[in-house]
Amino acid sequence: MNFFSAWGLPVIVAVIMFAMGLGLRPADFAAVAARPKAFLVGAAAQLLLLPILALAVIHTLGITGGLAVGFMIIAAAPGGPMSNLLTHLGHGDTALSISLTAVISMVSILTLPLIVALALPFFMGAAAPELSLAGTVMTLSAMTLLPVLAGMTLRGLWPAGAIRLEPLMRRLAVGLFLLFLIAAIWLARDLVRAHLFSLAPGILLLNLSAMTAAFLIAKAARLPPPRVIALTIECGIQNGSLAMFVGATLLHSEAMMLPGAAYGVLMFPTALLFVALVLRGERRLARAEAEAIE
Prior knowledge:
Helices cover 87% and strands 0% of the residues. By secondary structure, the chain is mostly helical. It has one domain: Na+/H+ antiporter like fold. Helix 4 crosses helix 12 (254-293), helix 5 crosses helix 6 (94-124) and helix 11 runs antiparallel to helix 12 (254-293). The model has no long low-confidence stretch (mean pLDDT 87).
């Protein structure tokens, strides 16, 4: 894993964040003020609810050691850029999704290292590796904030070119991530075989719990359907590449990397199923309205 964790993951994370920056404008951040209720509900779900759900899953399934820390890492990671595309496909509020992804990615520069720093001694005790809080914040800033700012700067200086480049960079980022995911799982195949049956149920439980809770909370907050869809997907799609970077590169642990890798694989089928159910419901409603008019 040395080459991949030292060079592969940092490059992939930087490409993903650069692609995100290409699609951002200052107006996307200003849009948060236009929908504060939906944003605050989504931010609370991402920053507070997900770590609490991860703790519940860890306790329920008896997950320990580095794997437990890995669960907390993926729960503390921000939403992944693919959530914006899936929200668009599901006819959700794409602007809200973009705002949440961007802002939470910035905030997680501080919250992710803090949660990891607390999780390490809690789950591993004296065996926990040392983690420099300040150093981790600086590293995450270099790996996330700087590429995003670079992408936004290019968008501001060369908007037409950035708009053309952005979908290509997104596809490149997804392709690189999938290639790395396959390589990482292969290199850690002994560990994967040892923990596959205990890991997959926990990852699915965390993912489905996050999406269900976000859906119910958004409904309880009486948000309109497009925003309910955006928040549900945003809480289900996490930045798996960033979680793997923290586990493999910063903490040098395959066990801590595995939950991020597993989540990166399993989050897409559940999110696509949710999108399919939403579109099916919309078609049923459209048919019912057409029949009522006739």
